[in-house]
Amino acid sequence: MDTHEGTIKLKEDFDPEKPCVRFRKAMKGMGTDTNVIIKMLVTHQNIQRQEYIEKYKAMYGRDLKEDLKEELGGTFEEAVLALLEGPYDLLYGISLDEHLVSELSGDFKNLMCALVAAGRDENQTVDTPSAISDAQLLYDAGVGMNSETDEEEFIRILNTRSFPQLKEVFNQYETLAAAPIEDALGEEFSGDMKNGLLAIGEFLFMIWPEAYSTAAGEAIILYYCRSSAGEGSTGVLR
């Protein structure tokens, strides 16, 4: 059986700064170098286009899409902007982050927005002293507090630590608290927020294989959150 792969391959040693510099030069001065714009778009896969969209903003403090809108027009502008849309944007006409902000609220909204921001550390090396420190922070933010639970601390740690590191954090938490992290999550949280946090733990301990990329992991966690969340949130994560 013949197999067919996309003609645009991921570039090895991809440096998002280089296309950003070329985009900026193509739009500065008199006229616009549309040939450069086309080349930058059709020689990078969508995932790498998303990287240089963010890098462009970091480098110049400008929005690449807005700059292109100012320089282009008509169907060519529409085609260029379509190539810069992420997969969710193409399906729903709105970014996933914007959809979450409009449909969710409170701590669960913050948890989901942090999750899709893809800020998780990619380093697979486990730092035990750091894990012990994080375990203490989670304990103090939850069952160890005399006042209200610090939801932001849970969101920050569970969404930014690498999966191997987070597993060690949970192990250290159990040693410290003499109870698994799931007990604390069940006691300190409720509703969609509890289900969302538990989904991260469920994914981590039950189905996390080393072969999964962080992006794949986040996608599966979102699936579990969708499956576990209340009726009002399910449609947003579908």
Automatic annotation (TrEMBL):
Gene3D superfamilies: Annexin. The keyword Repeat applies. GO terms for cellular component: cytoplasm; nucleus; plasma membrane; vesicle membrane. It holds the Pfam family Annexin. Keywords: Annexin, Calcium, Calcium/phospholipid-binding, Repeat. The keyword RNA-binding does not apply. SMART domains: ANX. GO terms for molecular function: calcium ion binding; calcium-dependent phospholipid binding; phosphatidylserine binding. Belongs to the annexin family. This is Annexin-B12-like. It comes from Homarus americanus (American lobster).
